[in-house]
Write a structure and sequence with these properties.
256 residues, mainly alpha, Four Helix Bundle (Hemerythrin (Met), subunit A), 73% helix
């Protein structure tokens, strides 16, 4: 077996996978806070493996595939199992299908990303809600809202169903989302507002001990969605204007 410099980022990817497995074990033991921490650490190692791969210049197709498989466990299967364990188990087969939606759509999104991957360079925008963002949305909602008995039960039930369905649909949508900016001078200079937004979100989430993760993810989701809708409307209007300007008036049978 040949040892190359790519083993370092791949080890971080495997730690991501191990964190996902650990989260599943914690969920089976009803330790949801520990499970949330494991998924959070999985996200940190998922970010680090890409940074290190670019730093040591060892990005590869193997690394991309390994990363996707690890993400499927940590950010797809683990959150879905959490949803099933805390609520959807009581609806039998229907609940099983609903709880599985984030895992199914998240893995579809990963497969779509890999199929359309033409370069190992970092993309400026992602198509569909990133699967780690979907996982953070779900676990933060469950931990700080659904399990909060001070919130009325009808509101919590409506919330968990809405979050499950909307997050799942967002992952397989065509909406363009900003990726997490890399902590580099190039990234900061190219998109200072995006970098500041993510930095403020991370700091606020840490200070609030995770309670502001869900509101931050909502702002991230709806902000990118509104931008996508605005650009889509603008593109349609420009296309109509181009057609109108390019058309020649038709000559009728009685025109000279």
């Amino acid at each position: 077996m040949q040892i190359t410099k790519s083993i370092v980022p791949n080890l971080f990817t495997l730690v991501n996978l191990f964190m996902g497995f650990s989260a599943i074990v914690a969920i089976s033991e009803s330790d949801y806070f520990k499970a949330a921490l494991f998924i959070l650490f999985a996200g940190i190692f998922d970010l680090l493996d890409g940074l290190i791969a670019r730093w040591v210049k060892s990005a590869s197709e193997f690394g991309v595939e390994l990363d996707s498989l690890s993400d499927a466990v940590s950010f797809g299967i683990a959150p879905s199992f959490l949803l099933y364990k805390v609520y959807f188990y009581q609806y039998l087969e229907t609940g099983l299908l609903l709880a599985a939606l984030p895992a199914i759509t998240g893995i579809i999104r990963l497969a779509r990303y890999n199929v359309h991957l033409t370069s190992l360079a970092e993309k400026s925008l992602f198509t569909g809600f990133p699967i780690p963002a979907g996982a953070f949305t779900i676990i933060s909602f469950v931990l700080f809202i659904f399990l909060d008995q001070q919130i009325s039960e009808p509101l919590r039930i409506a919330g968990i169903i809405s979050v499950t369905v909307l997050t799942s649909l967002a992952m397989i949508s065509k909406i363009k989302f900003e990726p997490i900016p890399r902590p580099t001078l190039t990234s900061i200079k190219s998109k200072p507002f995006v970098f500041s937004f993510f930095l403020i979100g991370v700091i606020a989430s840490i200070v609030s001990l995770g309670k502001l993760i869900f509101p931050f993810m909502l702002v991230y989701f709806f902000g990118n969605t509104l931008r996508h809708i605005f650009l889509w409307i603008k593109e349609k209007r420009e296309a109509v204007d181009d057609i109108d300007e390019g058309e020649e008036p038709e000559i009728g049978p009685y025109d000279v």
